[in-house]
Every structure is written in C-alpha cells, then in structure tokens.
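An instance noted here:
***
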Amino acid sequence: MYTNKRKFFKTFVFVAISLLFFLGCEKDEKIQLNSLVVFDINDESDWNYMAVGGDGSYLLISEQNGVPDELFIRPESTHDGYSVKLDSSGLPRYAVIDNHIFIFKNISGAKVDIAVISPDGSIEIVRDIDTGVDNNSFSIKNDNQIKGWNTFWSVVGHGAGVAACGIGIATAVTGVGIAIAAVGCTATAVGLVAEVVPDDTQILGLSSTTIGTISTIAGCAPPPTVDCVLGGVSSATSISLYAYDYLAQNEELVNIAEGVLKGGYGDIQVTLTWDSVCDLDLWVTDPYGETIRWNNPTSASGGYLDFDNTYGYGPENIFWPDGMAPPGKYSVHVDYFSGSGVSTYSVLIIVGDEVLNNGQPITGQISPNQTLHVADFTYGNNNEQAIVLHEDSLNNQLQQPAKTKTE
C-alpha cells in the first residue's frame, strides 16, 4: 500500500503551531500539543509525514495519490498508539486497538455509527455518535486528488478527529476494556488543523538539525536523534501491519458487522452474510406467521427487506423500524437458493440496542437446496428477549416458488 507515494513539498522549513488536538473523556485528561512540528519522512520510512507534539504525542500519515489513506495515532507518550485505515475520501473505516476492531460507517455531519468487535468475537453496535467534527465542511475532488496543503491537513484532521472521538465514546458506551479507553477529541481542536496551517506552509526534512529543534519527540530522551525517531516510526509500522493481519484473520466478523451497519435498523434487525459466490436468502417470520423474504420484502407488521444480495457475500438485511415490531415470537431461516458448494453463513440478530446470543453471530454451513432454521427469538410483552438456536435442515419444508431475482 505504500508504493507510488507522492510528496507535497520538497523544500523544508521549520513550523511551530499551537494546537490542541486530543481531549480525553474527562476534562483533566486533556493533552496539550504546545508545538506541533511536521516532518517529511517519506525517504526514511513507509510513511509520508510525521506530525509531532511537544509532549511526545504524534501522528504518522500515509497517502495514496494525494489522499491520506492511513493514520497512526499516538495520543500520549505512555501509549504505543494505534492504526486507523481510511477510505477513499480520507474518513476512518477501521481501527485496531488491543485486538479490538472498530468499524466506522454512515459518517454524516458530526455523526457516525461504529461497530466494536471484541477479541472474544462478540459485536456491539453504537449508533449516532456525535464526534463534534462536522464532516460536511470539507470534501475531496472527484478525482480523489487533494490539491493543496491546507486541504490535505483538513482531511487528516477530520480523519483523526472522527477516529479518536468515536473510539473514545464507543469504548465508554460499550465498556470494552482497552488501554486507551480515555482517548477522545474536540471539534475546535481538529478544525484548527485546517485553520492554522497556512497554504504556503512547508515541512521539515528529518535531519539531526531539525530534530534538535524540539526537546521531546517520539519518546526520545533529550537530545532526540534521527535514529530514535525512526525507531518509533518502525514500531508504528509493525503495529500497522499487525492491524492489517488481524483484520484479515477476522474477515467474517468484519463482514457481518459491516453488513449490520449498512442495513436499516430499529426495534429488530436481522442481518445475513456468507463467504462464497452463491445466492443465500434470509427469511424472517413475524408473530403473525408472515415471512419476509425475496418475494415478500415487506410485511403487514411493518418489516422490510432492504438488501437482497444475489451474487455473494451479502448482506441481506430485514428490520422493523422503531415502534413497528409486534410482540411475540420471530423465526429466522437461511435458504440456499442457487450456486454450488458448501457456504459458511453468519447471522446477527439485534433487538433494540442488544445483540442477542451474547453478542455473537450465529454461524454454520449450508449446502445447495437446503433451508436451515437457525434461530427463534421473542420480542416485547415484557418477555426477556430470549433466543433459541437451531441447526436442523428443513429440507425445503417451507416451500418457495421459482424465482428470478434482480439486485
């Protein structure tokens, strides 16, 4: 991912910028960056830029075709830092911290939805997190090419701000135990990245002369050296590469979590993903006995099938908006409509804010022409939202007509 990187500037001068960048969940945990210094480290590392604060906190920035595509955030000198993968618009998509995966979706204005995957494989969903970072205030050209230093750092600031603040709130809401649970953000501080870095600002080359201009950098004891700084950068690269490997190792969990964030939600949400190129279908039967599926995408009770994937991997998603789901028993089935070979499926059931089955996806294997009854659950009537898992094949006892599906 680090090939074909571009530099924005080749002339290096010193810049010192007063910047408040990170704010913890408690006011007394605020981290002040009194002198942010920007270095070009493209020649010395796999990263393009390093923005260092006087307290040992720093950002590493990688870009592709002029657009930031990864950040490494170390919010304080006592933490190793964490990797944030960005999408093509420079907004966060994934972060990995202490074997917890954070997935960002539906970023609009200052709001973002986040799925948190814990090391035990459980998933929690936190919606409408208010990051305080207005993402409607900046944009990238259609050619995915940022033209200008000021715009570049605006995108970096927004990406870092959404990630840091979103992670801070998500960890507080879900209670996941990570060492960096106190990290947060402030909209004013992140906005300053664009406001205080003038268009004609250039960056420092990484040399013994420029390194010596600040007293603390990357955890180095004064006087800091280039080798010490590059040692910190090398460690960050190792953490980043591990994050890529960890995401790949947990691909099925990532896919189902992304499918949930993509689909509609409300009182009830049921989402299906799978691991092969074939056509699986999700069926959900409501308490009145009506089954929502490909040929009956809405029910009288208010349920909707909003994604019907016909070519592979999913998602398929059925949901009842807030205030619409009738109380009673619901049944979930997975049908193998077309394709060849065994496929592994994952189903996640969410009732209100609770992910049933202790936060774990329901997984199994299904063969062509099988229909599996995977779970029943109850909703409302002051009943517990109990779930009963099934692994029995119905052998198409729920008869379905021949279908021609279009996406």
Q: What stands out?
A: Confidence is low (pLDDT under 50) at residues 1-34, 186-196, 392-404. The two ends are 32 Å apart (CA to CA). The longest strand covers residues 328-338.
